[in-house]
Specification:
This protein has 360 residues and is an all-beta fold. It has no helices and 24 strands. 40% of the residues are buried.
Amino acid sequence: MNVIYGSLAGLVVAAPIAAAGIQTGGGGEPPSLTASQTSRVILRDDFNSGEWGEGWRGEWVQDRNLRVYCEDGRLRVKGISGDPVPVCADHHEFRFTGLVSKQSADRDVVLACKMQVLTPLPNGKTRVRYLVHLCGAQPDYFFDTGMAHEPDGREGWLHVPIAHGFPFSHDHDYPYVSFEEIPFGGEHTVVVEHDAETKLTRGYVVDGGGWHPLGEYRAYLATTQVELKVDVPYDGVEVDVAYNDVRIYARPQNAPVRFVVIRPPFPGFPFADLDVVFRDESGATIAEGKTDRDGEAALLFPSDRLYPMGGEAEFSLNGESIGLARIESHGVDGLYPGDIWKIDVPERFRVEGEGYPMGM
C-alpha cells in the first residue's frame, strides 16, 4: 500500500498583514490603526501559485491514469481510471489518488475546503468517491467526507468513519444525504470538525443554503492530516474534480482571537481597559471584550461561521473611539481562531517612562 508518512509540521506562522497608516481622524472619523497578524492556522493553500505549498507531503497515486496538478488556482484530479498500482489486494478494494498533507499535532480543529465535481457521476455497478479526508495517520482512523456513487446505485453526500480498526467505510451502508437536499452541481465547501475532547467529528456541506449536516461519529485521532483525493477502484470511470481554498484551523470554541494593544514608545506599553468590538464585513458585531492589564483582549468568535473572516476591530477608551483596525479577508487569508493581532496606537497615547510598567 502506497502510504506516505512524515514528521510533525511547525504550527505557528507569522503573517504580517498590510494596513493603512495612522490617520489624524479628519472629519470625525476614527483613525486607522496598524494591525499585524501571527496566525495559528495549521494549513492553508489556495493553489494560486500554480503548485501546492509547503504544507503538503505530496501526491498519493494509486491509479497512474489520473493526474494530480494545479490549474487556474485550483487543485485538479482528472483522468479515466484504469492503470492501478497494486495495493492491499488481500484486504479492501479501493484506489486512492490525490494530495496528502503533513501531519499536525493539533487535533481540536476545523477542516474546510471548496470542492467542485466537473463531470457527471457514473451509472451502474461502479464506484467513485470525491473526498475531503481527515485522518489521524497512526493509527489510521479517519473520516471520508464528500460525494459518491456506489455499485448498488446509492449516491449523494457522505460522512463516514473508520475507528478501532473496523468497520471500514467501504464495507457498510452508511446513510447518504441526497442531491435533492444538497444539489450536485456547482462549488460547495466541505467542512469537517473534530472535537479533541469528546472525539466527535461532524461533517457539513456549506453553500448558499446554509450549513447542511452530514453526520456525527466518534473516533480517536492521534494527529491530523488532510487528503484531497478520489477513490475509484473500477476501470473506465471519468474523473474530474477541483479543490480550492483548503484550510485547517483551531476550533473557535477553544481558540480565542487575541488583540494585543501597545502604546508607544518602543518597545511599547500595554494599553489596558480598552473596549474592543469586532464587526464583520456586513457591520454585524461578532465579538467584543476589554483589554486587561497586559493590553490583551481575548475574544471568542462564533463556531457557526467559516474562517478566515474579514472586518474591523474598533478600540474605544471611556466611550471615545481611538481607532479602527481593518482586517482584509480573501481566499485563505484573513482572521482565524487562535490568531494574535498586535495593534499599534497613535503617538498621542505615548506613555512617558522607562521599562515595563510593573505593578499596574
